[in-house]
Amino acid sequence: LQKMRSKQVQNIVAAVALFLSLLMIYSAFKGWSTRSAPVTARSTSAATTAAAAADQFPMINTSSLGQPYYVYPKARTNTSVAVTIVIVVTVGTKMEAFATAMNSIECYAALHGYTVSVEYDNKFTECEVHEDKFFRRHCHTHKLMQNQIKEDDWALFIDGDVGVVNPKRLIDEYLEDGYEIYLFDRFYNWEYAALSYLVKNNARGRGWVEEFSKFEFKLPESFHGTDNGALHPFLMNYLVPETRDPKTRSRTAALCLSLWNRSKGFDDLFGMQACTRMVIGEREHFPEHKVKIYQKGNGWAHDLWIFHSHWATDDFMMHSLKEENFVQFPSDEAGQKHCRDSLLNLVGNGACHVVFPVLKKLNVEKCKAGTEGWLMEGRLQIDNETRKKVYDKMAYRILKQQMELVGKTAAKIQDV
Ligand SMILES: *[C@@H]1O[C@H](CO)[C@@H](O)[C@H](O)[C@H]1NC(C)=O
Ligand SMILES: *[C@@H]1O[C@H](CO)[C@@H](O)[C@H](O)[C@H]1NC(C)=O
Ligand SMILES: *[C@@H]1O[C@H](CO)[C@@H](O)[C@H](O)[C@H]1NC(C)=O
Ligand SMILES: *[C@@H]1O[C@H](CO)[C@@H](O)[C@H](O)[C@H]1NC(C)=O
């Protein structure tokens, strides 16, 4: 019964999460945050200037949309970085639900000489203690690292609905000397993303994944947000170790945990996340823990629908590529222009969610031989500069919402 109930709760959470994320993105596009006072000109930081610049629409010639074209990526020449791409699928889910995404991953890996591990989540008996499928996947990843992946190689965990849109980019590019655990900021809000991480298969990397998986057993009986919610208190504990102990943690850290404990919905959950980020600090590098968290837009994947399926050569992977979500790119010029205009003006438009820009199924044998061409939807391509402008504009809108939510948590501070 307990299991059934938690499954039901999970389904409800998933449904609400989907609805809310759509709502959030919608409100972001609608400029929801502009209802409250904008950052005043008096705080003349570089950020304000950049925010103002980002508020001007990027110039683009919409009548110069490209056409589909082939890209012939070359295999990487230096294969000294060994990576296993780990995909763990809930038993019972049909792999076909992710066919397009996985095809791109398999081709990409075959080309560059990375390993792909796609498995159901019932392989390791040690992971059966996990009732939450999201944490079970991290347990599975930990077991793979222990049993199958070579010491000091790398594991790139990704959701099943992550695919490659730019085969020329390398996982290797994301590695930096002295860092062993890599994450990135989610795009649609101020979350750290649990949908993917890149870790070195050594004691530190394995320890990180194991500890994260075990956070399931520390979930409060509240609207906790499963693994993506838990990633925040977990990272707070990991990066600011004194927050582990009630005796040494700051009042702010105690507030974050108490918010999680009392969470009744997304406002509370997102407030908790914003709170933990305040304790952790908005940094990319945490050298003492060998952790790097890529800022919004600098990570290796984001939800394809956020920018109405547009991509640039600076992009690498995309998330949210479920077969059931795919739509056809509008065939008429007006529809196509509408897609582009929605991107540039950051307004809602479901018509171009989600068009995967790799148009043809890839032949993995040919990928391995380095002879496969990727047929790209050139009409959805934007240049790097436009990408940066659009990303900045969106990121500043979300930053405003994050700051506002931090303010709102003041009402949740309990008098002692
Ligand atoms: C837009 O692109 C078209 C086709 O490339 C070109 O003919 C036109 O002059 C461009 N317009 C502007 C304003 O750059
Ligand atoms: C290959 O890459 C590794 C890791 O980045 C580097 O240490 C090594 O020097 C490279 N080898 C060559 C031949 O460039
Ligand atoms: C969370 O709530 C439980 C009971 O509801 C309480 O025992 C625990 O101390 C709370 N933890 C925090 C961090 O507030
Ligand atoms: C965009 O960036 C990518 C990688 O950062 C680079 O390879 C490419 O040449 C750039 N494209 C343009 C048009 O500047």
UniProtKB/TrEMBL annotation:
Highest taxon of source: Eukaryota
Membrane-spanning residues: 12-29
Pfam families per record: DUF273
Swiss-Prot/TrEMBL keywords: Membrane, Transmembrane, Transmembrane helix
The keyword Transmembrane is assigned to this record: yes
Protein name: Uncharacterized protein
